[in-house]
Amino acid sequence: MAENEPGLDPLKEDARITSLNERMARAKTEEAIRKGDGRDKGDNDYRLGNRVLAELVGGLVGGAVIGWTLDHFLGTSPWFLLGLLFLGMVSGFWNIIRISNQRSK
């Protein structure tokens, strides 16, 4: 008998609630962009790869140039070149290891 009795009509969706939901979604999107969460992970990986390459090449080239310059002025043939080239390679790999340990996000 309760089915036949008049009851409360279901409420229609209020336009204020719809507007509030839209504003909250927009605010969440803006906050994600502000915090940098909206960025593509591929972009960060690309930057990291470029940084690793720059560390390795920079260490090698820097060691080679400084070693060659010292050899040229001191007349010690290839010894400073080889020694500083090796040190540049070691420092490049050391920086790459340091960068890879830093990236645990």
Q: What can you see in these coordinates?
A:
This protein is mostly helical and 105 residues long. It has one domain (15-102). It is built from 3 helices and no strands. Helix 2 runs antiparallel to helix 3 (79-102). It is rod-shaped and about 110 Å long. The model has no long low-confidence stretch (mean pLDDT 85). This is ATP synthase protein I. It holds the Pfam family ATPase_gene1. A possible function for this protein is to guide the assembly of the membrane sector of the ATPase enzyme complex.
Can you summarize this structure?
This protein has 105 residues and is an all-alpha fold. 75% of the residues lie in helices and 0% in strands.
What are the secondary-structure elements, in order, as H or E? Answer: HHH
Q: How many angstroms separate the termini?
A: 62 Å
Oligomerization status of the protein chains: single chain
- Number of structurally distinct domains: 1
